[in-house]
Amino acid sequence: QDLRPKSLDIKQEELGDMVEKEMASTSKAIEDAVRRIEEMMSQARSESSGVKLEVNERILNSCTDLMKAIRLLVLTSTNLQKEIVESGRGAATTQEFYAKNSRWTEGLISASKAVGWGATQLVESADRVVLHMGKYEELIVCSHEIAASTAQLVAASKVKAEKSSRNLLRLQECSRNVNEMAANVVASTKSGQEQIEEKDTMDFSGMSLIKLKKEEMETQVKVLELEKRLEGERVRLGELRKQHYALAGSYDAAEDGEAKPAPAPRRGILKKPPLAQKP
């Protein structure tokens, strides 16, 4: 609902002010996100240890790097917008320029909102993951959303910018950096999830004696089932090989036009050689 264009409800002279307001709001949201992540880092260090602390630190560090990249992106985008307005408004005021290009202005506002919303959602998801109340998949989805909203902001800014603009080149570079940092969040989240799941699978320290005995019996049953299945597969493999050798032998004999070689005599039929006579 917040991302819908609201130019019909806003007077033209207020549209330009709304752009600056939304960009400032986005910058504030990112600053708040960075501060929240720092608080989560301190909390994680005091409440967790070992593998969980290592995973939480790696995820939160990647989120911090992403927030820094987004902050630079928003700053560069703001500079580019000022450059666009100054070069395109002529004798008109800033408000008149935004009103004249209302569709572009609406796209800019929507993109800015999307970036700020994505940053906020990422921090909330990271907070839930650190507290073991959320899902790792949420972080991955938020990272993809941030990359998409970044592309939207760059596209909206690029429409009115000069191709040779240095600020445009910087914005495109910032966008690539944001995508790279978002990919790092995804990678650290996936590796952390695998680490935690592997540790939880082998962590028996909190089990009672009865629970341990039950787990032990269930594991023994699984081992016997797997051994039986393995033995069956070995027998199957042996039969497959026997059939393969038989078919291969028949094929070779048919190609040569000769009969199959006689099978080797069994050991029971073999006779001892005659003893040598003394001179």
UniProtKB/TrEMBL annotation:
User: Which parts form a coiled-coil structure per UniProt?
Assistant: 207-243
Localization per record: Cytoplasm
User: What GO molecular function terms would the record report?
Assistant: actin filament binding; clathrin adaptor activity; clathrin light chain binding; phosphatidylinositol-3,4-bisphosphate binding; phosphatidylinositol-3,5-bisphosphate binding
Q: Under what name is this protein listed?
A: HIP1R protein
User: GO cellular component terms?
Assistant: clathrin-coated vesicle; cortical actin cytoskeleton
Q: Which UniProt keywords apply?
A: Coiled coil, Cytoplasm
Q: Which organism is it from?
A: Halcyon senegalensis
The annotated region (Disordered) lies at 250-279
- Its gene? Hip1r
I/LWEQ domain span: 7-248
* PANTHER family, per the entry: HUNTINGTIN INTERACTING PROTEIN 1, HUNTINGTIN-INTERACTING PROTEIN 1-RELATED PROTEIN
Q: Which domain of life is it from?
A: Eukaryota
Question: Could you provide one GO biological process annotation from this protein's UniProt record?
Answer: actin filament organization
Note whether Coiled coil occurs among the keywords: yes
